[in-house]
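Protein modeling request. Please complete all fields; requests missing the sequence field cannot be processed.
Requester role: graduate student
Desired output: 3D structure, token encoding
Chains: 1
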Amino acid sequence: MSHPQSHRYDSVAIIASIVSGVGQPMVAKLMGTIITDLTMAEDKGAAVVKDVKFFVIIGCAIFVAAYLQMCFWTLAAENQVKRIREEYLHAILRQDIGWHDTGKQSESLTTRLNSDTQLIYDGLADKVGLAISSFTTFVAGFIIGFTSGWKLSLVLLSCVPLIGACAVMMSKFTVQSTTKGQDSYSKAGSIAEQTFSSIRTIVAFGGQKRETDAYIEQLDAAFANGKQRAIATGVGIGTFMLILFSTYALAFWYGAHQVHDGHMNSGDVMSVFMGMIIGAFALGNIGPNVAAFASAQGAAYNIFKTIDRIPTIDSASPNGAKPENIRGHIVVRDVDFHYPSRPDVPILKKMNIEVKPGQTVALVGHSGSGKSTIVGLVERFYDPICKYYEHARPTLERFATGMDMN
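Delivered output (406 residues):
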């Protein structure tokens, strides 16, 4: 499912993200060049002025690229999420009444329509651009590092798997707790929505405390998941910073030995150090963005599951018989029925009734005897469990066995 304009936005946004990602490692290379010019160039002033001009050019390029990146990714995400919301609402209205009655979609549909689509938006918008630019920065930084001094780069490279593992673990715990917390908030929203819609009945039977306790229970579950997410994020960021500063110490220690031994100059050490560190930082920044993708994927699963569901009674289907006229002759023969939400409670047993055109019929019986159920079956809110069901047979021969219509 994609919006036509999104493809054009994505192309520009991807190019802008790559340019923005390459820009930061180029700054690292220029920093090394400036240090080399300050220590080794014959005309230090002219060399530094030239380097400063390159800084200005790169800065302007990053400014334009970063603007295009954020702007076009956001526009693409807005178009996509707008389309998803339209399709999701259409899918909800398309579902048969039995699907709504069973409560398989235990969460509040309105909550899903707002909160889950917002998670999808977060996973499609600027996070995509940041992930691409961070990955580009990671690759470009390592290329600059290895071309400037491969020995020092190999030493610093030993710390990269630790940084990556830290980011992956933090992302994993964040995604799990976010998904669970979102489900809890959805259930809480469903409880609140049902309570407000039935407020008269709840007050009449004194059920305020019970509904409040049920609502608080779901909020407590969401709080527990949020607490786990906060702990995982805190431990992950703390571990990441520990590894990062340890990498700083290792880089300066080994780089000093390389300069002392004459294998590298100070500018190359700075280029390797900044290139590798910027690349490592970028690798760490990919983790939170990937977590946003995973959260969006988890939210999209429920939404697209509803969108892709083909209801048993599809009111949006163009198929089925289209009679030119209906006389209104209704015949019900040997109909058995139970509601999808209560399959163990039979409502109709071998029900037989015939209503001729122009005839007035009154259905009388105690509560739960099936009066409104008969009307719901005639309107085809449900399909009966039956041997035979016929609706306006003299005009429409389409219910020879059961309620087979679309």
